[in-house]
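Good morning N.,

You mentioned wanting to compare the apo and holo forms, so I went ahead and generated the holo version with T4K. This is what I fed in:
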Amino acid sequence: MDSESPAFDHPIHVGRPNIARPEEFFRLVEGALERRWLSNDGPLVREFEAKIADYLRVKHCIAITNGTIALEILIKASGLTGEVIVPSWTFIATVHALKWSGITPVFADVDPDTHCLDPESVRSKISERTTGILGVHLWGRAAPVAELQEIASEHGLALLYDAAHAFGVSVGDRMVGTFGNAEILSFHATKFFNAIEGGAIVTDDDDLAARARLMRNFGFAGEDNVVSEGTNGKMSEICAAMGLSNFEGIDDLIAINRRNYVAYVRGVQDVAGLSILEIDSSIRSNYQYVVLLVDDECSVSRDDLLAELRRNNVLARRYFWPACHRMEPYRTLQPNAGAELPATERIADQVIVLPTGTAVSEADVDVITAMIARFAAPR
Ligand code: T4K
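and this is what came out, ligand included:
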């Protein structure tokens, strides 16, 4: 291979959608078109909700337009006000949903080994104005659910989770989706299990579920009867069709992600200064994000390695750099937040998210890791 020509002649993306059964998708869409029922609590959305609730062993699943609106509705339905503690090390949607709802996000640091909230940092951020904690199960790992529940119960705080990355993940024998007061899911096209655009609120709390259901549909409790504030958070039948068609393939998708994860670990394990973020053995992950960490021992910088990957058509990402507290409006509103987020600050400079999913073969991973090992070899 000519050293100047890229390793791949086509882009290998992070976030390439998995499309498990296109013929089933078309069949379901045809049915929706024949019924002329395209949105507003249609039969495919109801079937999708029932499947998700059954899979997670949770009482209520309320399908929503996307994960961000699911967060916003859940925040309102939970009655959060004042301050809510949240990691800065997450996708901006988690934090924006709080701000959008008139709440002050208070950033807590994360555990560098898991990239999820550090309970001690959470404790240190509780004030008289705190009404809740919004944890994130980042990268298909699980937040420290037991410790966070203890803190929430001790201080009478609501405990919500952003499980946008964690569909299909379990801790022991309990599925993510059943922790805290409620959790949200995302079924965006880039998630390993997708409904094109989509999200959900999942909870065992009957009253919270009822409030969220009303809010999803403008607060309508009947044709002419609005009983609460609300928005338009409804999922379309077309999105539900994609979700349903992908649903049967979930275990296969996780197996493919796991195969790629193992190949990435194997490919970089002997390179000084490089590692793939580990998954705790007590967790069953969905392996949907492969997180490469580039530390100071590496002979090249994170950004030079990223540039080399991109030169070779591997469109890896620096998710979630810069961390939320370094983006607007938080950077201006809380200019000193970083001083108490040392792990977040460090991690944000180390991460490269690598491509995986059904569009990436094990052979592709071997080419990518060989390229990484060559480029990052000690000089
Ligand atoms: N909480 C967390 C922790 C989240 O990560 C997210 C979303 C949310 C909440 C909110 O959930 P949603 O409201 O989105 O349901 C992407 C996704 O849009 C976003 O859903 C996701 N997290 C985030 C991590 O990634 P961007 O801004 O990076 O998207 P973009 O357009 O750069 O695309 C990412 C990659 O995917 C590119 O390499 C292109 C590829 N791609 C994308 C699409 C849509 C494809 O190959 N095909 C496609 O159809 O946010």
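The CA atoms of residues 170 and 284 lie 5 Å apart.

Happy to go through it together on a call whenever suits you.

Best,
F.
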